[in-house]
Amino acid sequence: MGSHLECLDSVDSTNSHARRLGLEGVRDGAVVLAETQDSGRGRLGRNWVSPRGRNIYMSVVLRSDLPPESMSQISLMAGLAASETVDEWAASRLKWPNDVLVGQRKVVGILAELEMRADTRFVVLGIGVNVNMELADLPPDLVDKAGSIAMAVGAPVDRARVAGRLLSNLEARYDELRDRGFAGIAEQWSLRSGFVGRQIRVAEPGGSVSGEVLGLAPDGALCLKRSDGREHRVIAGDVTVIDGYEAE
Length: 248
Description:
By secondary structure, the protein is an alpha+beta fold. Helices cover about 25% and strands about 30% of the residues.
């Protein structure tokens, strides 16, 4: 990863730029980095706050023979790699599907987008890491939710080093997913999330559901046991841990 690397001063979105490169035939593992984004995107159509020179705004083009239904696995794999990276500076925890938290604050977000046409198929994997962002960089609605590695350690952090470690961890986990499947990644993801056995509430596109987390399905879906005993698969949605992440 990174054998083709583009470092941009400003871009509409690293994912959009990486998609354009993908359609032009750029190689597997190509990486786009930017100092800022004008229209950074997060999950569920949200904006990604992108102050200049503070954080890592990265997208990777992945070309592989993984089936389209493995998109959830790719997102979870990337979240695991990002959590392993953040841990080199501050202890982190995973929140389904791929947010990385330090304490109660989100420091990493991931957006995987599939491009599939008759003549090409690839995934654009966008990863935003809040490295040196400060509270003053955040809009009011995120002041109590988002954080950064620097905020956690109390000092500025070398962005280039974080980016390098992220690419190394991502490549290792991506190779594992392709060569040995999802089982090992799912196990490590679950250990880092502390999710199993917790009571959560999920705002899904069709409404809200609550239940006890049973674990990850083979395809990466989150399996819940509802209060009536029925099992429920969560494919997409916003998760709230009812008893919080600091309870243990």
